[in-house]
Description:
mainly alpha; 4 helices; 0% strand
Amino acid sequence: xxxxxxxxxxxxxxxxxxxxxxxxxxxxxxxxxxxxxxxxxxxxxxxxxxxxxxxxxxxxxxxxxxxxxxxxxxxxxxxxxxxxxxxxxxxxxxxxxxxxxxxxxxxxxxxxxxxxxxxxxx
Length: 122
């Protein structure tokens, strides 16, 4: 199995791409602040999942990378809230993206709680 086959990876990658597309419409003055921050944190989620999967022979590294991914996912939620409060996205878009992010969080936590299902020796 490749890390690209992991549902958590697929859904987090898809979310990061949606965020990338949406942030293209953010004001230019946000380019090096909110736009950059939300793109970085959302992209970090699948990147850390990939790293965790590759480090699965080391249970502590697997767990550490997944908790990093979960933290980046939470950070993304904060930036989404700022985007909504700044009126860069509407409540509907915010709700959709937040729901996707919550689903990703549940998948990451499933991996954390069930490492043996992902090839980690426990």
